[in-house]
Amino acid sequence: MTTGGALLELDGVTVSLPVEGTMRPVLQDVSFAIRPGEALGLVGESGSGKSMTARTIDRLLPAGAAVAGRVRFDGRDVMTLSGADLKRFRGEVAMIFQDPRAHTNPVRRIGDFMTEALRTNSGVGIQEASRRAVALLKSVGIEDGERRLRQYPHELSGGLLQRVMIATALLTQPRLLLADEPTTALDVTTQADVLAILSDLRSELRLAMLFITHNLELAAAICDRTVVMYAGQVVEVRESNKLHDQPLHPYTAALAAARPNIDATSHRLTAIPGRPLSAFEAPQDACAFTARCPHVADICRRGRPALVELDGGLTRCVRASELFGKLKVPLNA
Amino acid sequence: MRLRFFVRRLAMLIVSLLVASFVIFAAIYLAPGNPIAALSGGRSIPPESLKVLEARYHLDQPFLVQYWYWLTNALHGNLGISITLRENVSDLIASRISTTAGLVLYSSILIIAIGVGLGIAAGLRPGLLDTSILVVTAISASLPAFVAAIVLILVFAVQLRWFPSLGNGVGFFDQVKHLTLPAVALAISSLAIVARVTRAAIREESRKEHVQTAVSRGIPTAQLIWRHVLRNAAIPITTISGITVASLIAVAAVVEVVFGLAGLGAYLVQSAQSKDLAVVQGISLLLVGAFVAVNVLVDVLYAVLDPRVSLGSRAQ
Amino acid sequence: MSVAAGVSSVTKRSRVGRQRGFSPVLVISAAVIVAAALVATAGPLLAPYDPNLPQLSQYFVGPSPEHLLGFDASGRDVLSRLLYGARTSMIGPLAVTLICMTLGSLLAVTAAWRGGTYDAVISSGLDIVFAFPGILLAVLAAAVFGGGLVAPVLALSVAYTPYVARVLRGAALRERAQQYIAALEVQGASSIAICLRHLIPNMLHLIVAQATTLFGYAMVDLAAISFLGLGVQPPAADWGVMVSENQQGIIQGYSIPALAAGLCIVVVVVAFNILGERLYERGEARR
Question: Which of B54-63, B300-309, C256-265 has the lowest mean pLDDT?
Fold first, then answer.
């Protein structure tokens, strides 16, 4: 990947975790980049390595994890950061988690939770920090910020708490937001609110974002480009607006087909046959998707495919150019 | 909501104490043997004196009336007269209470300081230290106080001669010296339990997602441990420390007997053996009261430490 | 030591870590318990001498090939007394455990199943009984009813039942909320049948773990009561009594009888506690 002005760049990132005494790969040769202000979607089924990618970027891997490859943020090697540099990095990269309730300390007030990093790492006084917190709460649609700061997490609903999370993430004025399925734990109407807020604030603040979701449509709606992952590997990188209609990888096409479409006349819901593989189950010398791919051929089993450029995107499929334009979504056809 | 919790706990405290006092009184009332005969020491008493005595001790009244007299007297600090020593039970208790209180306090300090300290060390640092603390506490948690006591006497009093094996001592430092082995014997199993629970609580809290949030925000490790791990682990640690400290109040009796300390517990056992029932009643009432009070205190502390508690009870 | 069941409910140990497989510690604990049970059953057959035959001339005489652990303060054979003592030392805790588990399960299941007023009454009742520390209640019982095992056993059973019932009630409530129970109710199965055939069997791992831990605690408390002279009465051979009888030996420089009896108590209690803890962890891991 040649991205001169990339804010975040992953280059051949491979991660293994110790499981019962053996090292199990969870990410294999993951490469992509995010430009300043760009929203990049990261899509895949559970276990595909999406969250692990975010954790790797944010240095949140469990003890004993082995990381190969490079993660660069603003030109600096993230994996070797320490001390003040690491602290500054963590101020510049903020993370929003899937379950806001589990990710807030239940015994600390909202105000403490929101301003802790600002007070600790930026030396901002409590009153100034609280003032900024209230202002940001207002921008995520919470009007009575002063009162909220005095409340405890258990006194807030999930949707409200996720907005608090977003406001908190923005408080240190980060340049990159890692959003790990920020709406999955919320109910449908709240999801829409939270997404709208996130989207608006992001473009307003010209903030780069890595948006992790299992929902291809959602990623396409919010992000400029989307990365599709399968079994710990990147299988496709594509402009979001082309992802649905002109997928490059059969897995992306299958993902797009496997969701209910209210416009379609058919009531049949296509599911991808078989079950998703974890990175450690993926074959070493074949395409990881062979077991479930409707377009599988002998050539797919002759070594692991490389990421190749096609139609302005990237795909890890040896039959990509042959299949290009034929991977239409069956339901809409 | 909080207020309702505290009021409810206070009401429970009073009910518990009333029931406890009733049980204590009823048990003694039902005990075989005639209190007058005990009072007279077995000598025969003329019928008219018997009537006078029965009236004076309300023995001619129905059971519930007698309970009421006993309870109101007890609340005024009048716990009756010891038949063996012919003295006021309250005075006898007063002269022994400081030994027991000192012993329990000394033990509690050891339990909380060392038990919680070891637990934190083991919880935060997996490895050799953690493993050795686990093994040692697994055994010492099952060590009965009286067995710990004789081993301590053997090693530190008989062989090393660092501490005395018997008696209360005179003056503050001498008393502390005399109380050291008893306090250690009393503390040892509770200390191990507190250490293990502390370790488990710290491990559990360290794994919580909200700790990850704090890490991702660049909170320094020391602050992370203090404000997010220890602060949250303090909830189960306080509960277990409170429960164990409360249990010391009763177990102190065993240690007092081994070390020949003139405390309430040893006196309770001695009175139980000699059937000095007024003393048994008085001391039981006091110890149950202290036990219940410490337990209520633990519940209140729990509610103070955990903002999620409104009306629930602990151990959920 | 009335911490008993409280510990397991407070800790909520992690599910990670040792789970399946037989760890050596587990095997050793189980072996100690089986051995102790065998000695408690067959102790009198194994004992080489009469445990109650005093030979005052042999007062605190040390071990010899004929008397492996020597003599106690009254010149009785220590090994024989230990072997006989296994039964008296373990029958009390066994009784406490059986009474508590029966009573505790019954109360817990009733409270969880009937809910409402039943639950409120049972829970408040348990909270009130909770006010009595076990040892204190046992001393009170012994003072009123005289020495012997019966009064302290009943007293400890009353004192420990709330701990057992509290934990089991929580488990019963969780189980009660399971869908399959509702399905059985809809199918018209009787409450008693559901409780006996489904609810209790599904809580069994917890009941067994609780019983194991409880045995250890009851043993410590009963030994302490006997040590204080309020439980098993001399000259009967009992480990707690033996520590008390030979305590003077510690100061006089001859500690084998007291230490041997103390060691017996500790070994058995440690085995029960470790086994109980592991059983609890396994039960939690399986859920």
Answer: B54-63
Q: Inter-axis angle of helices B231-258 and B264-273, to 10 degrees?
A: 50
Alpha-carbon distance B108 to nearest alpha carbon in chain C (angstroms): 14
Sorted by where each begins, the domain ranges of chain A are 232-333
User: What's the pLDDT tens digit per position in A303-317?
Assistant: 888 888 888 889 998
Under 8 Å between Cβ of B303 and B315: no
Q: Which helix (H) or strand (E) holds A66?
A: strand A66-73
Indicate the burial class of C24 (C-beta count within 10 angstroms; 0-12, 13-18, 19 or more): exposed
* Gap from C138 CA to chain B (nearest CA, Å): 10
- Residues lower than pLDDT 50 in chain C: 1-19
Residue of B nearest to A55 (CA): B216
Cα distance between residue A96 and residue A178, in whole Å: 6
Q: Which domain holds residue C68?
A: 2-286
Cβ(C167)–Cβ(C176) below 8 Å: no
Q: How many CB pairs under 8 A join B and C?
A: 183
CA atoms C154, C158, C159, C164: torsion sign: positive
Nearest to B306 among A60, A107, A172 (CB): A107
pLDDT digits 0-9 by tens, A29-38: 999 999 998 9
Q: What is the CATH number of the domain that holds C63?
A: 1.10.3720.10
**Cβ contact B231–A152 (<8 Å):** no
> What are the tokens at A303?
């070594």
Distance CA B131, CA B117 (A): 15
Q: How far apart are CA C266 and CA B77, in angstroms?
A: 41
User: Across residues A181-188, what is the average pLDDT?
Assistant: 83
